[in-house]
Amino acid sequence: MFKESRRNPVASGEVTQDQAVTFSYSLALAGQLLSAWFGTIIFFYYLGLTLLSFFYSAPPLRFKSRFPLDILSHGMFFGSMILLLPALIFGSLTTGVLLIAISIFCLSVTIELWNHIADYTSDMKARVKTTVCVLGLEKSEKTAKILSLLFPLTLVPLYYSGEYFLPFIAVTSLYLFIIAKRTIPSVLYSYANMLYGVIVVLAILSSY
After folding, report:
1. N or C: the chain end with fewer CB closer than 10 Å?
2. pTM here?
3. What is the pLDDT tens value at each position of the chain, 208 positions in all?
4. What is the secondary structure of 41-105 as a DSSP string?
């Protein structure tokens, strides 16, 4: 039976590094083989994302431990590019897609900053030069707060002339008020999931 745990399984000794590497490569290979089933374009799209993930996490590049590549690459590889690449490939790049991509980039950078803030002590001991280690806790927390407030505002043009503008403003105003008082990552994640979930639902409904 698998046990639920919030600890890094390698750092906590639950699995060895070799086991973790083997498992990771197996997942990547399985996903790559599955992507081939959907055609050449999807195969190379998945391959590109897999390589970017490798560059982000694995040595010798390991962008996640290099200032400022840690937050910039996270914002791109695990944010905006997941949306932009399919749009470019399938010719559906619009102003709306660009606005959402910018918003997701800001959100992804914010999430990475909070992750590094949580790991600040251990990263400093390991002498890892993440953005938080270089900027310091205070500046990093201020930057994370600003980005937490900024990312939904880039989507205002999407709602401005639509029937959902007032609900969007009401919910977003409540979110901004809470975050301005105290930046709570759980509130950030809940709001982001709702925000992008609504966009996906509306996009599906508009296609019918």
Report:
1. N
2. 0.80
3. 445 555 566 666 777 878 878 888 899 899 899 989 988 888 888 888 888 888 888 888 888 888 888 999 889 888 888 888 888 877 788 888 899 899 999 999 999 999 899 889 988 888 888 999 999 999 999 999 999 999 999 888 888 777 788 888 899 999 999 988 887 788 888 899 888 888 877 776 666 5
4. HHHHHHHHHHHHHHHHHSTTT-GGGBTTHHHHHHHIIIIIHHHHHHHHHTT---HHHHHHHHHHH
